[in-house]
Specification:
CATH class: Mainly Alpha
CATH architecture: Up-down Bundle
CATH superfamily: Cytochrome c oxidase, subunit III, four-helix bundle
Structural class: mainly alpha
Mean pLDDT: 91
Number of domains: 1
Number of helices: 5
Radius of gyration: 17 Å
Largest sheet: none
Length: about 150
């Protein structure tokens, strides 16, 4: 039988492997976006809805409260982030290539955030923390990608 320390180490290792595979997924999609953006002259980009920046702040705060040990508050803030994303999706256009990339990236991130909330509820502390902080960092990367590279 494994002791708690070993279980935490196994959980952390599994979380890092999961994070690496998710990073590869988003790296491939980023590559597709860069190629598509430069392929044709129809890339218009779009301004990001202001609520998306509020949602970003909520996710960052959730990571900070998790860091200080407030696991329940982190998953509640994660739920608020997802609800906010649902509102953002009602404001997003879908007529240009950049719009569709934002849809795909944000929907995939939301799916992984649901997994992160489940991890915060049920997984071992080490793995849940690693995964949640990774999701926050990934979202910051995506916002920078669209704020800087997604523009025309």
């Amino acid at each position: 039988m494994l002791n708690e320390r070993t279980r935490q180490q196994v959980s952390a290792t599994a979380a890092w492997i999961l994070c690496a595979s998710i990073a590869m997924l988003f790296a491939g999609l980023t590559s597709a976006m860069v190629v598509r953006r430069n392929m044709a002259g129809d890339w218009e980009g779009m301004p990001l809805p202001p609520l998306i920046w509020v949602n970003t702040s909520v996710l960052i705060i959730s990571s900070l409260v998790l860091h200080v040990g407030w696991r329940r508050s982190a998953w509640v803030l994660g739920m608020i982030f997802l609800i906010g994303q649902g509102v953002v999706w009602t404001e997003l256009p879908s007529s240009q290539p950049g719009d569709w990339f934002l849809w795909v990236f944000s929907m995939l991130h939301a799916a992984h955030t649901v997994g992160g909330i489940i991890a915060l509820l049920f997984a071992r502390e080490a793995g849940a923390r690693i995964y949640w902080h990774f999701l926050t960092g990934l979202w910051i990367y995506l916002m920078l990608l669209f704020a800087i590279w997604g523009r025309p």
